[in-house]
Amino acid sequence: MASAMLSFASAAASASASLPVHENLKGKTKIGSVNFGSSVQERNPFGKTKHFGRVSMTVAVNVSRFEGITMAPPDPILGVSEAFKADTDEKKLNLGVGAYRTEELQPYVLKVVKKAENLMLERGENKEYLPIEGLAAFNKATAELLFGAENPVIKQQRVATVQGLSGTGSLRLAAALIERYFPGAKVLISSPTWGNHKNIFNDARVQWSEYRYYDPKTVGLDFDGMIADIKAAPEGSFILLHGCAHNPTGIDPTPEQWEKIADVIQEKNHIPFFDVAYQGFASGSLDADAASVRLLSARGMELLVAQSYSKNLGLYAERIGAINVVCSSADAATRVKSQLKRLARPMYSNPPVHGAKIVANIVGDPALFNEWKAEMEMMAGRIKNVRQKLYDSLSAKDKSGKDWSFILKQIGMFSFTGLSKTQSENMTKKWHVHITKDGRISVARLSSAKCEYLADAILDSYHNVGLPEIGQQ
Ligand code: PLA
Question: Which of 194, 195, 367, 385 has the fewest CB atoms nearer than 10 Å to its CB?
Answer without folding.
Answer: 367
